[in-house]
Design a protein that fits this description.
This protein has 169 residues and is mostly beta strands. The chain has one helix at 71-75, and strands spanning 6-16, 21-26, 37-42, 45-57, 60-65, 81-85, 106-109, 113-124, 127-134, 137-142, 148-152, 157-160. The strands form two sheets. Strands 1-2-5-4-3-6 form a six-stranded antiparallel beta barrel. A six-stranded mixed beta sheet has the order 10-9-8-7-12-11, with no helix packed on it.
Length: 169
């Protein structure tokens, strides 16, 4: 699978139990119930793995992949990145977005005008931050909050309304 056609959803943190299960760290908002398979990065290749079953407990996700039946087999996946095909990703509600979708979008503030282009979306604990370059200075804008007023995917524009003094911080 071509990596450009996929997006990263997390990675294998460690093995779990005696049946070949692994613990995942999920970095994207996904519904595992809708996913039958994932791609795991092994070397420079994305290899398909089919999900046998999964479980959520507290803040952890445990997955059992088909044909991974021992802790030794599971340990070979430790640290590997996990991807989904972009064409198969679940639809999001209006106004929501996947992190990789908005890279390159132009951010415009209601008062200050064009601020720059989104270079990255950063996960900082429970918060997501849009990172952009504004006149050679890195700006981080919280996704969860009152600042983003609209996201237009077709025109690749994000409108924000930042409080006075935000850009000077």
């Amino acid at each position: 699978m071509d990596k450009a056609l996929c997006y990263k959803i997390g990675y294998v943190a460690k093995t779990h139990g005696l049946k070949g299960e692994v613990t995942l760290v999920i970095t994207e908002a996904i519904n595992l119930e809708e996913i039958k398979s994932v791609f795991i990065e092994i070397g420079n290749n994305l290899v398909p793995y089919f999900i046998e079953y999964f479980s959520d407990r507290q803040d952890k996700v445990f997955i059992k992949f088909e044909e991974v039946n021992t802790p030794e087999q599971a340990s070979l996946l430790k640290g590997a990145s996990i991807f989904l095909n972009k064409s198969e990703r679940p639809k999001l509600a209006r106004g929501e977005f996947y992190d990789d979708e908005i890279k390159g979008f132009t951010v415009t503030d209601k008062s200050a005008g064009v601020l720059g282009t989104v270079t990255e979306v950063i996960q900082a604990g429970a918060s997501r931050l849009i990172q952009l370059d504004h006149d050679g200075k890195e700006i981080l804008i919280p996704v969860n909050g009152p600042f983003i007023t609209s996201i237009n995917k077709s025109s690749k524009k994000i409108a924000v309304d930042l409080p006075e003094g935000f850009l000077e911080i």
